[in-house]
Amino acid sequence: MVSTVVVNGRSALRFERRLPHDPEQVWAVVSTAERLGRWYPFPVAAFEPRVGGRLAFEYEGGVIEATLTDFDPKRRVFAFDEHDLQGSERQFDDHVRVEVRAGESGGSVVVLTHVPTDTGNAEGVAAGWRQCLDRLAAEMG
What we know:
By secondary structure, this protein is an alpha+beta fold. The protein is built from 3 helices and 8 strands; from the N terminus they run E-E-H-H-E-E-E-E-E-E-H. An 8-stranded antiparallel sheet has the order 1-2-8-7-6-5-4-3. A hairpin with a 5-residue loop joins strand 7 (94-102) and strand 8.
C-alpha cells in the first residue's frame, strides 16, 4: 500500500508492506549493511549504525553519501538523509525512514517513508520502492 503524506512540510511517499515474519527477523534484514544492500536500490559501501553515522551507497562508479538521523533497534526504526551525489548544496536532502512494526494479527509491517528532493517523478519513485519491497520480502524467504 502506498499513500502520499506530508513530513515537515514536504510531500512524501509512504509504503506499508505486511510480512509473515517476526519483527526482529525483518529488522535484521533492514538494519544490517549486508542484508540492506540486497533489497535497497544500491549496494551498501559503508554503514555506521548510530545516529550521526555514515551510510554510503555505490552508484554508477561513485558513492551516494548519507547520514543516519535515527537508529533505534528497540523501536526498530532507522532513518537517513541522502545527500546530493555531486556534493553540491541543495535546499533539502532526500530523507528515508524505515520502521518495522508488529502486525496486528502476527507477522510484521514495514513502513517506508521517502521524502524526495524532486517530487516530479513520484510514479517512477513509487514503482522503484515497490520493487525494493518485493526484494525485501524475497530476502525474508
